[in-house]
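the two lines:
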Amino acid sequence: MSDAFLKADVRPTADSANKKVQHGPWRDAARSFAKNKTALIGLGLVVFFVLLALVAPLIAPFDYKAQVLSDRLKPPSGEHWFGTDDLGRDIFSRVIYGARISLWVGLLSVVGSIVIGTLLGIIAGFYGKWVDMLISRVFDILLAFPGILLAIAIVAILGPSLQNALYAIAIVNVPTYGRLVRSRVLSLRQEEFITAARALGANDGRILFKHILPNSLTPIIVQGTLGVATAIIEAAGLGFLGLGAQPPDPEWGKMLSDSRQFIQTAPWTVIFPGLCILLTSLGFNLMGDGLRDTFDPKMKGR
Amino acid sequence: MASYIFKRLAVLIPVLLGMTIIVFSIIHAIPGDPADTILGEKATEQSKQALRDQLGLDKPWLQQYFSYLGDLLTGDLGNSIRTRAPISEEIVPYLAATFELTVASMLFAVFFGVNAGIISAWKHNSWFDYICMLIALLGVSMPVFWLGLMEQWIFANELHWLPSSGRMNARDPLDAVTGFYVLDAIIQGQFAQLWTVFKHLVLPAIALGTIPMAVIARMTRSSMLEVMQLDYVRTARAKGLSQFAVVYRHALKNSFIPVLTVIGIQTGALLGGAVLTETIFAWPGVGRYIFEAISNRDYPVIQSGILIVAIIFVLINLLVDLLYVIFDPRIQYK
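prediction for all of em together
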């Protein structure tokens, strides 16, 4: 199907023949991405889980909170596709609603890290001197803690909740993006087109947001996509430790820790939530790898 | 080299100071009165005051920080609120347990990761390559705690091959000499117990080592692929060396720097991942120590535990930087 789509796209019509030269870098990137099979599998997984999250209320056969104690720990069947948990709740419905939580935490925390990290990185890289010193040292210090441990510490301060887990994951990952943007700014600052823009009278704000930021976008996108995978696993980990989502929220990590004592009698209670974490993060990882190959062909195959 | 080490250590000082500030702030960032949070709302005013005195919470902020720093420099990590024991003594067996688990995981990860990467690059585009890369791909996306649960279910609960939790049979304890059970068993010549210790190590080490193994395999493969195309490798082949010698003796040496970096980063990451693995396998390590402290609101333990792990993490990174020189004499430090 994708082949036909591509051919249709390439075939020059009277109209597009004249514009052919103007193909932007984004379009080239999209085409190269579409040729990458593993990247497409990743995109497929991501789209699948996003759709699942969006239409959860429509397709979930049961209420994810509804407890039917007479149906405790029932194995997968026609009625309950993924079986039921220790409170007789339908695992299929809970897993679908769980996609909402995991994607929400994953995406939002990454957006948070990117916004804060980019701002700090730009300030550090553009203004240099003591500002750079200060910000870079803060990044060093944050990176000196193993990620999940720092997140645990932050949640220990703020108190266990899904929202605080989100904040913790966002804070922990800020230096990753901060350093990335800082190094981009440092190298871009030396480029001639920045000097040209300055000669034309552009002020700092214009140079930063119209010239430097757009040119730093692709590494941020790649890192961000891979970051969603990490954030989802970290959020599930915090949930598993009881430091993230609280009952009755059907968070995947929390579902695992609630059901682990039944693993011998009812393994389905543990298998399906875990598979969902694995597949979602696999999707984002594959997509991120694909995007990196697309934007930075030198890295291909790494 | 000596001056490089000196400079590298000098850069560490602000980082270490910053870490102490963050860790120190943990107790002060608690919303409301920390004494309320730690002891609960129902505690008597008297016991709350006693705790405030013990932790010095009534003193000015800056004074508290400097006395905290002073205590740290003399090796005083404070006392646990729950057990009242000095943390610097209490934490030692937990650190030993984590250290043993981390070393086992890293041995597993490096051995399988590096070899899988090498063979994948050697037999590029073969079925072995594809399977290895598929496993590596799944490995980096794997939630450690789920992998641990699955291992427990399959290998302990269903097949009964390996014990599902703990470091040792509770009924057959080992006299702790060093705290590292593998060493202890060897020193005392208890080879039956050594076997038991080993069996307890397998599942948690594999769970914890899977992500690093995957990352190491991917890095080794890509680095080897690059090096295998270089002229000197062709020369080695032309000399008539066996393929094995070319790959393992010539190519591996020059592709090892990026692999070493990854090994260093991953060893540090293991310390974080250990919290989850230790929880699942009831492994009495420092991750569990910190986690239980969080459940008990034992803030001094949380603070010191996190600080110690972070310091170890920083030292590992330093060590990796220094190892570069040994592996690649071209790197000159000025």
